Automatic annotation (TrEMBL):
<dbReference type="InterPro" id="IPR004045">
    <property type="entry name" value="Glutathione_S-Trfase_N"/>
</dbReference>
<keyword id="KW-0808">Transferase</keyword>
<dbReference type="InterPro" id="IPR036249">
    <property type="entry name" value="Thioredoxin-like_sf"/>
</dbReference>
<keyword id="KW-0216">Detoxification</keyword>
<dbReference type="InterPro" id="IPR010987">
    <property type="entry name" value="Glutathione-S-Trfase_C-like"/>
</dbReference>
<protein>
    <recommendedName>
        <fullName>glutathione transferase</fullName>
        <ecNumber>2.5.1.18</ecNumber>
    </recommendedName>
</protein>
<dbReference type="Pfam" id="PF02798">
    <property type="entry name" value="GST_N"/>
</dbReference>
<dbReference type="InterPro" id="IPR040079">
    <property type="entry name" value="Glutathione_S-Trfase"/>
</dbReference>
<dbReference type="Pfam" id="PF00043">
    <property type="entry name" value="GST_C"/>
</dbReference>
<feature type="domain" description="GST C-terminal">
    <location>
        <begin position="95"/>
        <end position="222"/>
    </location>
</feature>
<dbReference type="InterPro" id="IPR036282">
    <property type="entry name" value="Glutathione-S-Trfase_C_sf"/>
</dbReference>
<dbReference type="InterPro" id="IPR045074">
    <property type="entry name" value="GST_C_Tau"/>
</dbReference>
<feature type="domain" description="GST N-terminal">
    <location>
        <begin position="8"/>
        <end position="90"/>
    </location>
</feature>
<dbReference type="InterPro" id="IPR004046">
    <property type="entry name" value="GST_C"/>
</dbReference>
<comment type="similarity">
    <text>Belongs to the GST superfamily. Tau family.</text>
</comment>
<dbReference type="InterPro" id="IPR045073">
    <property type="entry name" value="Omega/Tau-like"/>
</dbReference>
Length: 235
């Protein structure tokens, strides 16, 4: 990640494995913005909570972008702020209708895919897991047809845009979750356009993704903690 030095007017508070944080990283790097990365330790909740309480007292979660001392929160909001503050290499279209469409599809990704994937990690019932996975797969199918209708390399055209950045969840993150839970959400034969999109996206961001091995270890621990929390205690 760029900009690890001190004294930058732009800082990003995040955690390495967060797909929401990585979205902001790509937006900053797409714009060529120099920034300071501030890693919040997942294993140190006390200090993490203190930092977030100061910068994001309402939601207390990452990412938080700090620009000239002022915090901006929520990944899609941050990306729009970045796009409006630094005009080069636009992330959203200039046309108002196309911007509205981009916002709609980015929101669709969050509601129908990202939130479902996060929910899956908290489930222990296999039947419920399969039903949730089926809904996420259906949403990917809708996006596959939308990309086909556009006839472009990315949802943003020939370069990545807001929808592409939001949809990044279907790369390493989703693959790790599928492996940890032993479920199938994405099938390249059923979703050929999104399969090609994944390849194009990973190449575009120069493989700047959290390591899949690290995600696997983290998600396994997280899911096992959920299983343990619902298991009947022994007397």
């Amino acid at each position: 990640m760029a900009g690890h030095g001190n004294g930058k007017e732009v800082k990003l508070l995040g955690i390495w494995f967060s797909p929401y944080v990585r979205r902001v990283v790509w937006a900053l790097e797409l714009k060529g913005i120099d920034y300071e990365w501030v890693e919040l330790s997942f294993r140190d909740p006390k200090n993490r909570s203190r930092s977030l309480l100061e910068q994001n007292p309402v939601l207390k979660r990452v990412p938080v972008l700090i620009h000239r001392g002022r915090p901006v929160v929520e990944s899609l909001v941050i990306i729009e702020y970045i796009d409006e503050t630094w005009r080069n290499n636009p992330v959203l279209p200039s046309d108002p209708y196309e911007r509205a469409l981009a916002r709609f599809w980015a929101s669709f990704v969050d509601q129908k895919i990202t939130e479902v994937l996060i929910k899956l990690l908290s489930l222990t019932d296999k039947t419920q897991m399969k039903e949730e996975a089926k809904q996420a797969s259906k949403a990917i199918g809708i996006l596959d047809r939308e990309l086909k209708a556009r006839g472009k390399k990315f949802f943003g055209g020939e370069t990545i845009g807001l929808v592409d950045i939001a949809l990044s969840i279907v790369t390493n993150w989703m693959e790790a979750i599928e492996e940890v839970l032993d479920i199938c959400i994405f099938d390249s034969r059923t979703h050929p356009l999104i399969a090609q999109w994944k390849t194009n996206f990973v190449e575009f961001v120069r493989h700047n993704l959290p390591p899949k091995g690290g995600l696997l270890r983290f998600y396994r621990r997280y899911h096992q903690s959920k299983i343990a929390s619902v298991a009947p205690s022994r007397l």
